[in-house]
């Protein structure tokens, strides 16, 4: 018998989006939040820079909107940008009320609402509110603490969602999401979580690449599950590569925050010369796609493993105040950023595409919502403006929560009997080496063929390889007992296929998608929308 859990709302993902939504709903509904590891293991806790919002009298909604549209290279949806930016200030104050300890201005640290604002690439004003250089950790830890204190909210750790349960599992003609099958990693047992509404808040898919800033998360679980359930996805070809991740043989995937460049950090060649002036008049503060391509170009031109980011010309006290996390981490690898430059390389960082949703996070399937990096709202276009991601998480989480309350108040679907998880025909695998081999192959060819610079031939090679992998993984999944690694590999292969297919459809260079075969930008900006065969 499969263990079953019943709730009004099931939230898959414990990052800023998922926890914010849960906190808004728990006073009214029975809510469960699933985390695939511990509650702090997601991408939110790793975010350093901050959250973009209109908080200063010299800034405006119009300026923030214009910067977002410019970075998005013509593909942002005006309504999504307007909705998000217009609600930025209110949602920051919601976070402040939750207790997030944002850094105060040194001019008058005790003054109410007097917070330090920094400036990042693509922004025309200082509008990024932060908690030193560990904003994501501050947001995540604060919200999780609030969640632990909240009644009617159950938190489940070490639970990996396998697939959504829909009307197809019951033979119903009424399309709807009804829950999810979930692997309890500690018990090595599949459980069934039933709910009247399910929210995908699982983050992005940058782990599909060999080098990523999100090594422990971002395996595309929510996007893959929604696709298999019949939901459309959009703009999966736009994968943001963060220009500056620490390059060191012992460093796993440490991101050097955008704010280092925002506060005057300079990018340098190995001989100490600057180079960004040859690529963009905005220099180090150009949008991330431009900076990442410039670094990639110079590394390939010179045949070197990394370039350098230097903030050592600033006073040591300034560096320690603004970048304590970066300083401590680099010092652990023998690099004193107050005295020497930081070796850096680009790494896959953020997924701008995702599951298509409306302003309330609703997907194509009734009862299923997607928020945060899992979703495609239209906010980011062809390139995300720095620090708009955490803002999107909070704005759409609270909007979705409001919609769910209204939906369930007017019509509360029954929780019907759902079939147990069937593993009667599977066996334990004695060939886990196959999973490890497929994992390595997938991430390497995605890096080599579908990375910062693409060509038709590279994409064709990647499509050929992913087709073979999908067949192998499907056979393995059908015959062997599920594991965390197998679930992630299955999802990553699906997402890789979506990225490749989307990239093949876009016959132009725009934002984060740059191809040598179509180096120019088309006069018409069109989203890339993929529709699954089982779409309703």
Describe the protein in words.
- The protein has 536 residues and is of the alpha/beta class.
- The protein has three domains: 3-237 and 352-410, FAD/NAD(P)-binding domain, CATH 3.50.50; 243-349, Flavocytochrome C3, Chain A, domain 1; 432-518, Fumarate reductase/succinate dehydrogenase flavoprotein-like, C-terminal domain (Methane Monooxygenase Hydroxylase, Chain G, domain 1), CATH 1.20.58.
- It is 34% helix and 17% strand.
- It contains 14 helices and 18 strands.
- It has helices at 16-25, 61-71, 78-86, 88-98, 135-148, 221-228, 259-262, 288-302, 316-322, 324-332, 389-410, 432-449, 456-479, 484-505; strands at residues 3-12, 31-34, 51-52, 117-118, 128-129, 153-156, 159-166, 177-184, 189-200, 233-234, 239-246, 266-268, 307-310, 342-351, 354-356, 368-370, 375-376, 529-530.
- The strands form four sheets. Strands 1, 2, 6, 7, 8, 9 and 16 form a seven-stranded mixed β-sheet that branches. The chain has a four-stranded mixed β-sheet with strand order 17-15-10-18, covered by helices on one side. A four-stranded antiparallel β-sheet has the order 11-14-13-12, covered by helices on one side.
- Strand 8 and strand 9 form a beta hairpin.
- Helix 1 runs parallel beside helix 11, helix 6 (221-228) crosses helix 14 (484-505) and helix 13 runs antiparallel to helix 14 (484-505).
- The two termini are 31 Å apart.
